[in-house]
Amino acid sequence: MKIGRAAGVTDTGRRRLRNEDAFICEPPLFAVADGMGGARAGEVAAGLAAAALEEAGSRARGAEGVAALIVEANKRIWERSHNDPRTAGMGTTVTAALVDAASGAVAIGHVGDSRAYLLREGTLEQLTTDHSLVAELVESGVLTPEEAERHPQRSAITRALGTEPTVEVDAFTLQAEPGDVFLVCSDGLPAMISDDAVLSAIEEADRDPERAADALVAAANARGGEDNITVVLFEIVDDHTPDPSPEPKPMIEEASSPPASELPEEEAQAEAAGEPVGAEPEPSRHGAGAGGRVAALALIVTVLVVGLLVLYLAVR
Length: 316
Description:
Elements: E1 2-11, E2 21-26, E3 29-36, H1 41-56, H2 62-83, E4 91-100, E5 105-111, E6 115-120, E7 123-126, H3 133-139, H4 145-150, E8 170-175, E9 181-185, H5 195-204, H6 209-222, E10 229-237, H7 265-272, H8 290-315
Antiparallel strand pairs: 1-10, 2-3, 3-4, 4-5, 5-8, 6-7, 6-9, 9-10
Helix pairs in contact: 1-2, 5-6
């Protein structure tokens, strides 16, 4: 077995000013971090987590290895928040999948409410358990899953990176099979669409990770896009399957702590309170297109022609 196609997409959504998610899509490591902390501290926390995992991900092995990566990420975020007042109180979720292609084992490490799913033989299974208030209430029988979806505290998490000097990591290993598709996502996806809708989107995309990732983000935005939305998908294939082309596109940007002056006070207060702060335009996925270059060239040619004509008339 080996890793087949893989893709990751992150989107600000329709209600947030900034994207505080980060992700890794670099085989054999796949991860999503969802930062929090108000102002831009959440971006810093998620970026630090992603950087810590990426730095040593290729050397990690198994559940213990992925747990150690997350513990190291927690240490870095905790130290940063205590050395930089602008990031005090920041934190992030993280869910990571580490694939051992030789054995077919997939190790999952998890803190917070970002999720990992497995699609196998037409069934979508949630692999992780949310570290959240409503998840605990559902497990104890106080709430039904349907009530949890509408609960006013459904976004309150009970475990995160960077909020304490140590962290408890849920880590486990499962055996992959050819044809499996794994999904790692921030809570901005399941908060907007059901697991059935997630399954349908992946199947309708013929299990192509890139098409499925775009479809999932579009579906979440169509339902309101109330939070940042990040999805990473990868497939497990047999050894005879041709290698994918082009290569998966990683997107990890370690956030730096910006000066406080970069963010208006009212926006910082609204973000810290978790309130919507306006719609964010959909980010462009492409640079300047050929149409812009053609228009610019036409303008230059026109200016040259007019200049030559003026010169010709002058010398006559």
